[in-house]
Design brief:
This protein is of the alpha+beta class. The protein folds into two domains: about 130 residues, no CATH class; about 55 residues, Nucleotide Exchange Factor Grpe, Chain A, domain 2 (Roll). It contains two helices and six strands. The strands form two sheets. Strands 1-4-5 form a three-stranded antiparallel sheet. α1 runs antiparallel to α2. The longest helix is centred in the first third of the chain and has 107 residues. The chain is rod-shaped, with a radius of gyration of 47 Å.
Length: about 190
């Protein structure tokens, strides 16, 4: 029995050592796993922050692109309008010439002249062309003088109220509400 007790005594410390070693290995493994989990959590948070930053930068770049495209389209539209206005303005002296020729023909009193009828037809076509480009005549006869639409070239005494347009010396033209050329007018004193 003593031997058994000795064996028991010998065996018990070995079991305690084995259990202590196993427990310590488990604790070390748990600590190692906890550290690994903590490391992955930190990497995850870092990746999440980087993804949020990248998303924000991508959204900002997209907004900048859309704004640039919108500005470019607006600039292109303004350029087209300027070119069209320039084209229409280049036709205005031709309108003035037709208008002057027809007014002289009317003063001469030749209303059945085939030449005059041809000129009137050509002038009507020119006015239709201008109308297709949304060009309107500014004829302010009898209206109050507006310095944004009219250019006063002379004044005359009249029974009309002051600054009333008496006669139009040269037609004015506007396109889409924008004055291309103001009407040259004579106003009352």
């Amino acid at each position: 029995m003593t031997t058994k007790k000795d064996d028991d005594v010998v065996l018990e410390p070995d079991q305690d050592t084995a259990e202590t070693t196993a427990d310590s290995e488990l604790v070390e493994e748990e600590e190692h796993m906890a550290a690994t989990i903590q490391k992955w959590r930190e990497k995850y948070k870092s990746a999440e922050a980087k993804a949020a930053t990248n998303l924000e930068e991508a959204q900002r770049a997209k907004a900048d692109f859309l704004n640039s495209r919108k500005r470019l389209e607006e600039d292109l539209e303004r350029s087209k309008e300027r070119q069209l206005n320039s084209f229409v303005e280049s036709l205005l002296p031709l309108c003035d010439s037709f208008s002057m020729a027809l007014s002289h023909a009317k003063e001469a009193g030749s209303s059945n002249n085939p030449w005059q009828k041809g000129m009137e037809g050509i002038y009507a076509q020119l006015l239709q062309l201008l109308q297709s480009y949304q060009v309107t005549l500014i004829d302010p006869t009898g209206e109050h003088f507006d310095p944004y639409q009219h250019e006063a070239v002379a004044t005359e005494d009249s029974d009309q109220p002051s600054e009333t347009v008496l006669r139009v010396m040269q037609q004015g033209y506007a396109r889409n509400g924008e004055v291309l050329r103001p009407a040259k007018v004579i106003i009352s004193n």
